[in-house]
Design a protein that fits this description.
Blueprint lengths: L2 H37 L6 H26 L7 H15 L4 H24 L5 H20 L4 E2 L3 H8 L1 E2 L2 E2 H19 L1 H11 L1 H6 L4 H27 L1 E2 L8 H11 L11 H20 L4 H18 L7
Antiparallel strand pairs: 1-4, 2-3
Amino acid sequence: MTSTTWTTAALSRDRLLRSLQDYGVYGALVVLLVVAVALNTGFLSAGNWRVQLFQLSPTLLVALGMALVIGTEGIDLSVGAVIALAAAVVPLYIGYGPWPALGIALLLGAASGAVGGSMIAFAGVQPIVATLALMIGLRGLAELMNGDAAKPVLDSTLLGLGENRVLGVPVMAWIALAAAVIAALVMRLTTFGRQLVAIGDNRSASRLAGLPVRRVLITVYVISGVLSALAGVLIVGHGAEADPANQGLNMELNAITAVVVGGTPLSGGRVRVLGTVAGALFMQLITAVLTQHNVHASYTQIVEAAIICFAVYASRERGTR
């Protein structure tokens, strides 16, 4: 085989990987919907979609924050623990009213993100180590604050955020949609978005160019913490109870999966907000289809693992920086 043939094959393979990264999740969504409807004609019913949106919304909120973090070539393993911490705080402060309780939960989420971001930006701790430490510590703190048993939350405002619908769509889905739109606008139109991408692409060069690397890193982790805390409050409202021992478990894995499947590379330097939305929806529908057809949870996990491996392969770095 000649060198020209090798070059042509390499270019074709690179274009295929690029297409898979850019558009693969949308094609997969279409195929999944066709298969789901063929297996169950009621899959497109309004009732079923409301259930899917209720389950999707917290994951999407967390995934949006995770996408920004991964865009800087980072990772945030503390998101599930921040959900638990927010859930633990709500019963403690709901007596002051729903909005103070919500505000304190978001403030704690921001503080958690600031701690993790500062460890990474100033102390040079690896993101996986810094956020792993937070994941362990915050989960323990949440369980200490809440006690051994789940606590009921009966405030009508919080329950409304978790259960009410507007135009037939859950309020929490509207909140997640608004967060996605804001994230997309930030990444496309603001200096912060361009700085984030540049830092993820080459942190050393960005520092030499005078970009505020530390400030951007701390900011993305704060955003991730706030969105995770908001997801925690919505989960409490939807379930009418605070149970930090169980709420938010494996959420970090779900969020990372949605981001990777949506086409954001783990190597940083790119953030695909719409792809993250599609990735979160795809993984939610995969789980729903398999569950509705009584496929054992173990097989569901195997399918999800295979999808993650394929997505990572398709989005892997092509060439060195």
